[in-house]
């Protein structure tokens, strides 16, 4: 991708991720309580994982940015190393925190929507599905809208504002 396409690609990636989380949640909710549903859902999960593995072999090979870069198999040590490198540049660390906040807030809201729909709104599974759909479509639209906001520029100027907006709308 060209440098001016990275923001759009990121928006499409995050938006489509949430939409597929929605599709998976709806699929699982529909089939898991049916006779033999646990088998159907489990088999589908394994099938999708296998399809993803096969699709990964179709990704074209690309040279590394730094061929001398070495990684260890200890993911915890690597994570700590990456965080310490990110702390050296305050803006980069702020970006990492905001991305982590986005995924944490999204996971918490996704897990609370069924409870909110059933207990507070006294709705049924259609209410929950509707709320999940609104949330996921909102994330997708917001992710793509970020490209329009920054006009294809890679900038950190909006990161603090994005964290505050996510917190306000997530509350």
Tell me the strand percentage band. Answer: under 5%
Q: Specify Rg, calculated over alpha carbons.
A: 19 Å
Number of helices: 6
Please mark out the parts with pLDDT under 50 across 5 or more consecutive residues, or reply none: none
The helix fraction, in percent, is over 70%
Largest sheet: none
Average pLDDT confidence is 83
Q: Globular, elongated, flat, extended or rod-shaped: what is the shape?
A: globular
Structure description:
The model has no long low-confidence stretch (mean pLDDT 83). Helix 1 packs antiparallel against helix 5 and helix 4 (90-120) runs antiparallel to helix 5 (125-150). This protein is mostly helical. It is globular. The protein is built from 6 helices and no strands.
Quick structural summary:
With 171 residues, this protein is mostly helical. Helices cover 75% and strands 0% of the residues. The protein has helices spanning 6-31, 37-56, 75-88, 90-120, 125-150, 159-170.
Helices and strands, with pairings:
Layout: H1 6-31, H2 37-56, H3 75-88, H4 90-120, H5 125-150, H6 159-170
Helix pairs in contact: 1-5, 3-4, 4-5, 4-6
């Amino acid at each position: 991708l060209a440098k001016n396409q990275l923001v759009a690609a990121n928006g499409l990636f995050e938006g489509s991720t949430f939409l597929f989380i929605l599709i998976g949640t709806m699929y699982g909710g529909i089939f898991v309580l049916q006779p033999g549903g646990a088998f159907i859902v489990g088999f589908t999960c394994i099938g999708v994982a296998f399809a993803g593995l096969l699709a990964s072999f179709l990704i074209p090979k690309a040279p590394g940015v730094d061929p001398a870069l070495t990684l260890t198999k200890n993911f915890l040590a690597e994570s700590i190393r990456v965080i310490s490198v990110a702390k050296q540049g305050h803006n980069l660390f702020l970006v990492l925190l905001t991305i982590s906040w986005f995924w944490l807030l999204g996971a918490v809201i996704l897990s609370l929507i069924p409870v909110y729909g059933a207990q507070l709104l006294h709705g049924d599974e259609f209410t929950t599905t509707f709320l999940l759909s609104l949330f996921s479509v909102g994330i997708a639209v917001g992710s793509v809208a970020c490209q329009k906001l920054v006009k294809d520029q890679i900038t950190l100027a909006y990161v603090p504002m994005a964290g505050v907006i996510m917190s306000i709308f997530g509350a």
